[in-house]
Fold this protein.
Amino acid sequence: MKKGFKKPTVIIALSIFIFSACGQDKQSVKFSKQTACEILTAQDASRVLGGPATRGSFAGGTQTAFKETAQCSYVTKGGATSDDVLSLTIQRSIQRPQSVEDSLNALQTHTYKGRKTTTIKGLGDGALLATTSTSQQLNVFINKDYFVISTGATKSPTVLEALARKISERLTKIKG
């Protein structure tokens, strides 16, 4: 009798390997603790907030089986109101993400149900601005990344959109 694996064993093992790799396009670049604060700078925040901004909280390098996350915020005037805070949260999908259309629909019908939402055309693969009387959140999908810029309701949506374009450019450059 020959030593080694029989054909069915090899085929099953190979099939399991291929199946487990499907849909998992892992990135070689991992978010560091500083990633979001490198993409959203204090200078960016100062422009949006209308005064000198200092770094507030930041986190990064967290990873689950499905995504990596990094966060950063800046404050002005001690962060007394939501208009004095600007934050960025970035998520990179490790597994194949759902479609942008499905994601935007979920944001509109579940996450932001009852809030005013506006679709922003020509920004990333899809973008949605959600507003309340006290805050705004601009959600942007680009490739396998999703990011949210959050700030007070009095900030100009045009300024947030311009910032989102800069963030999209910077985020695309750090991909592995």
In short: Helices lie at 7-21, 35-39, 42-49, 100-111, 157-173. The mean pLDDT is 77. Strands lie at 54-63, 67-75, 85-93, 116-119, 126-131, 135-142, 145-152.
